[in-house]
Inverse folding.
């Protein structure tokens, strides 16, 4: 069951991160793209999660971090998860890291947290390689109401 919870948390986070990142790479030159919390929560991937077992998915932007809450429903159990993630920009790439994750109010183990971070890092890197094209992110700023990506395109 631990593997199932880990995979569900990872898939939800990847979907949300994808929804937040795509608009930031649509223009050329030095640009900033701001995405509001309202827009993120209204996006298709958040309002209609990829997995039908995921419900009550919501994204809460806080200073410098994102908190993702969801419920994962299984035949014999239901799990409420809360995951806190932060972005880091290095060499023009955004890396999201899970600071904390809880299931039904209990923190996940350090080993599981490390596995989740490893899965997110490789999935995000592969997604950006295939979708973003050329360009470099110079900063990501998260406030209580929005995320602002600043990037340079090499077109």
């Amino acid at each position: 069951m631990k593997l199932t919870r880990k995979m569900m948390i990872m898939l939800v986070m990847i979907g949300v991160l994808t929804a937040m990142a795509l608009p930031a790479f649509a223009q050329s030159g030095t640009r900033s793209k701001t995405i509001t919390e309202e827009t993120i929560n209204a996006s298709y991937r958040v309002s209609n999660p990829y997995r039908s077992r995921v419900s009550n998915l919501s994204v809460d932007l806080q200073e410098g971090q994102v908190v993702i809450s969801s419920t994962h429903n299984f035949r014999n159990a239901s799990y409420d998860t809360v995951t806190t993630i932060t972005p880091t920009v290095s060499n023009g790439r955004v890396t999201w890291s899970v600071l904390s994750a809880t299931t039904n109010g209990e923190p996940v183990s350090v080993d599981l947290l490390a596995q989740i971070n490893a899965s997110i890092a490789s999935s995000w890197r592969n997604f950006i390689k295939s979708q973003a094209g050329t360009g470099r992110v110079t900063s990501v700023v998260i406030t209580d109401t929005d995320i602002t990506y600043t990037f340079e395109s090499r077109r």
User: Anything to note?
Assistant: The CA atoms of residues 42 and 58 lie 9 Å apart.
